[in-house]
Amino acid sequence: MPAEWFCNACRIIRDPANASKTSGAFGSLLGKLDAKNSSAFRLPGDVREYFDDVRTGVDGEFEEIVPAPKPTRLV
User: Disulfide: which of 3, 5, 47, 71 matches 43 by Cβ 3.0-4.6 Å?
Assistant: First the structure.
């Protein structure tokens, strides 16, 4: 992370003239993206906890639980 970091939403509120003025088909979308802070996609809790052998990690990331193989009995 850079030494100076500013919240994108705060930066736009502080200095609206500095907002990017992009034209074209995606101009308004890109302007809105510049005014928001990035975040990772996260499924709702009920969807995340629905499936067996799947869990949510510490930072909300997807983790697949691989069950340990059953030991074979030697005769």
Answer: 47
Distances, alpha carbon 9 to alpha carbons 2, 6, 39, 43, 70, in Å:
17, 9, 13, 24, 52
- The tens digit of pLDDT for each residue in 13-63 reads 877 776 667 778 888 888 888 888 877 777 787 877 787 777 777 777 777
The DSSP result for 17-47, as a single string, is GGS----STTHHHHHHHHTS--------HHH
CA 55 to chain centre: 16
Name residue, tokens 């990690």.
57
- List 56's β-bridge partners, or say none: 62
